[in-house]
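We modelled the chain as a single entity of 149 amino acids. Its sequence is:
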Amino acid sequence: MPPYRTGKHNKRPPPDGFEDIEDTLLEFQNKMKDAENASHEGKKKYEMLWPIFQITHQRSRYIYDLYYEKEAISKTLYDWLLKNGYADANLIAKWKKQGYEKLCCSRCIQTKETNFNSTCICRVPKNQLQEGQNVQCVNCGCRGCSSAD
């Protein structure tokens, strides 16, 4: 999360209503710092980034819910939060489309990064998997984000 700067370097101060959600955003920022500074011993290379992806998802979902579900923040505040990097605008854009309501990260739908030019295994509905098969995404650690689940 970008630091909030005061003074002449910051072009625009946060809009009204930011004070109401600032504490929650600071909690997400502290969780992110803890995840970045956590020990990586014993973890695989790709597992080190999972907590960061999960915290980014939670923070983006929080802002999405405030604006679209609860209608608790204004359009100007929502746009300011997206512009200043408090939420992932691409992920939120996907959540608004049918079939992507539970999407965990945008890397899971990119087909160019996979061996067979398909989406991630976490996008497969659980009822189409073999019984007892555990699925965990290599990109973000998700255990299933299909909207059909």
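As a brief sanity check on the tokenised model: The longest helix spans residues 18-37. DSSP finds four helices and no strands in the chain.
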